[in-house]
Amino acid sequence: MNFILRQINVIGWNRMLALLLLVWIIILLFTIIPMLTNHLSTSIDTLTSDRLNRALADLEVLRKQNLELQDVLKGISVANLKPDQKEALENFQHRLIKADRSLNEEDEGYIHQKEDPSIQYEILRRRLSNNVQEFWYYIHSELKKLQSQIQDSQLQTSIKNIFNLGIQQKQSILNDLDKLGEVDGYSTWREKEANDLSNLVQDRFRYLQNPSDCKKAKKLVCNLNKGCGYGCQLHHVVYCFMVAYGTQRTLILKSKGWRYHKPGWEEVFQPISDTCTSTEGETATNWPGYGNVQVLTLPIIDSISPRPPYLPLSVPEDLAPRLLRLHGDPFVWWVGQILKYLLRPQEKTSLLIQNAITNLNFQRPIVGVHVRRTDKVGTEAAFHGIEEYMNVVDEYYNQLELKKKVDKRRIYLATDDPKVIADAKSKYSHYEILGDPKISKTAAVASRYSDTSLQGIILDIHMLSMTDYLVCTFSSQVCRIAYEIMQNYFPDASAKFRSLDDVYYYGGQTANNRIAVLPHEPQLGEIQLKTGDIITIAGNHWNGFSKGRNLRTNQMGLYPSFKVKPKIEIVKFPTYSEMYNNQNAEDS
């Protein structure tokens, strides 16, 4: 006992109390959250069910009364009625039939309403999952600090036990929240809404890019050869497309002499327009142009001036209400839709992808792992060993096995260093590791701008985007693009990633802001928050804290990640209503 007391004095009573407090918070949180989740689900379901049952019962009474009236009227002989009486009776019968149809439609409307969740429900469900994860980052970080300062083996064992139990509890809560999204009755709605929204914007893209008269169409010219790598160039084209959509100009992509493939974009991907590829026009100038100039040439995002409102991270105002309900990161969904349109493969590119899927025996479940080594490490990104990536992969599969049996743990490993694949296969032989060392060699700086390298990076990005979960560094544009494309495979894939360094960002973006939803008074040097404050985020430290600047106080520093929410930048884009007017005119 005296020995333990001496050890406590060594590490300090404050730290021991902090440890005990953490344990108490863990137990409290993991006890309350499932109760709150169940209560929330039960309350919503009960309230909705009661209202629907009452409404359907009222509709059934009205329907029976309607049918009884129709039966009575059918028994009335019209032979002896005067013409005006006969007409009145027929009109009344017609109204009864119409009312009956209306009741049926109302009935269907109530049922459909049950399938549509409220925006508050969807946002809260996602926020709960995010906050559980952020809380665990904090607990994990603090336990690691204590563990590094304690020498006593018994206390080390106690902390290890707390750590292991905490992981299990976190996994259990996240599993419950995941199940909530499956059993709340809204999963069909999410699938349908995702498809409907995608179809809507893809129709608009096709309309914009295929004007009826190319000679008269307003155009925006974009030069593909920005001086950077494939991922950066692809994001450059996406930015051009955003501005074209916002200014209602057909995008003309100049790609001849492309450093990755000299013949140009159209030999690898389908043309972005079937009817308009010429840059010719009566008037032409550089951005921002003047008056109604027909052809505008757009500079790179880093030097555009004045900056239009359509730049990242903005989303169209008319889509925002639906996106906020459906998706955890509306801007990433928006980029994913643009990439869906741009990256439609030519037949030979499609064949290349299909052969790779077959040869690799690509199966689910599978985690995508992207390890960037060469030109990024030491300049834009820090070094991360394969163990860091695989620890997260292990966490994912441990979580997944709470739901179902996993026949084989597998990853798709993409990297620009072939040694990484060999290292992973040596250390993680119990995993099935899919990856091609030949692709890794072509991704090296010396051979990057070649047809073989282009094929390799297209395959890597496509395979990564098709996985169930991504582990990577968001300092790499390759991984960010894979994450953006991934949004096309799930109604909401905004949480299907773990970045070992940066939060998601888009090069040349406007400020990435958060809104404080809870106040915070600095305790250990953090910045102050008041509810409603706007904070420009500089990064998440993955320890329960993020770094940013409070625009109210101009303070730069750390703040608890759970006390803020994303601020979605909503901008008034064109709605392309004329597209439907033209379609109606053609149909008539």
Automatic annotation (TrEMBL):
It catalyses: N(4)-{beta-D-GlcNAc-(1->2)-alpha-D-Man-(1->3)-[beta-D-GlcNAc-(1->2)-alpha-D-Man-(1->6)]-beta-D-Man-(1->4)-beta-D-GlcNAc-(1->4)-beta-D-GlcNAc}-L-asparaginyl-[protein] + GDP-beta-L-fucose = an N(4)-{beta-D-GlcNAc-(1->2)-alpha-D-Man-(1->3)-[beta-D-GlcNAc-(1->2)-alpha-D-Man-(1->6)]-beta-D-Man-(1->4)-beta-D-GlcNAc-(1->4)-[alpha-L-Fuc-(1->6)]-beta-D-GlcNAc}-L-asparaginyl-[protein] + GDP + H(+). The chain crosses the membrane at residues 12-36. One of its GO terms (biological process) is protein N-linked glycosylation. Pathway: Protein modification; protein glycosylation. Residues 509-569 form the SH3 domain. GO terms for molecular function: glycoprotein 6-alpha-L-fucosyltransferase activity. A motif (SH3-binding) lies at residues 306-312. Residues 372-373 are annotated as: Important for donor substrate binding. Residues 216-500 form the GT23 domain. InterPro entries: Fut8, Fut8_N_cat, Fut8_SH3, GT23_dom, SH3-like_dom_sf, SH3_domain. It is a single-pass type II membrane protein. It is found in: Golgi apparatus, Golgi stack membrane. This is Alpha-(1,6)-fucosyltransferase. It comes from Pyrocoelia pectoralis.
